[in-house]
Automatic annotation (TrEMBL):
Gene3D superfamilies: 3.40.50.360
Name of protein: NAD(P)H-dependent oxidoreductase
NADPH-dependent FMN reductase-like domain sequence ranges: 2-139
Molecular function as annotated in GO: FMN binding; oxidoreductase activity
Domain of life: Bacteria
One GO CC annotation: cytosol
UniProt source species: Nakamurella flava
Ranges for region Disordered: 185-209
PANTHER family in UniProt: CHROMATE REDUCTASE, NAD(P)H-DEPENDENT FMN REDUCTASE LOT6
Amino acid sequence: MVGIGGSADPGSQSDRALRAVLTAAEGRGAQVRVFPAATLDFPSYRSGAPLPAAAGDYLEAVRTADAVVIASPGYHGTLSGLVKNALDYLEELRTDTRPYLDGRAVGLIAVALGHQAAIGTLSTLRQVTHALRGWPTPFGLAVNSSQVHIDGDGRARTAPDGLDDPATAGGVELLAGQLVDFATRWTRDPSGGGSAPGRGAEPDADELG
């Protein structure tokens, strides 16, 4: 499972939310790798341009992943330019057997100072994921950082009183659970023992009407 995004600001809430979901998935048996915002500061994507070494490493990780988590801060109601540029680089996977995010569970996280911006950003992330042929999990995590603060250890607390926030904590666990469940049940393994929805084996000729 590969985590992408967050914000380049040290200790950003979107980065902490991303890591909290990955930690929860790891607790369910997933092998995880994170590409925080600081590692995604690639040049603006141009088709055919030489790939930076860091971008090549990132693309190879996504190529081999069974699930992906994308987290973005909400900037004026949409995802950050840095995260969008990293997703634009997935155009390099267009000729793969699994192009773009095809056949992968994709968990989405949006963090913003307000419900409207968080929900708007989450909705845009869903649209981008669909365009990349990914399978967004039914649940997406939208965090209003004016009311919820995620500690460095991934613990969600209400602001400003610092009480545990069971709603956000439950959302982290729910998202991680859906990602691991999808990847376990549906993602095609190297032996061909499973398949993602819509990617099953071709029927035998005598089964066709």
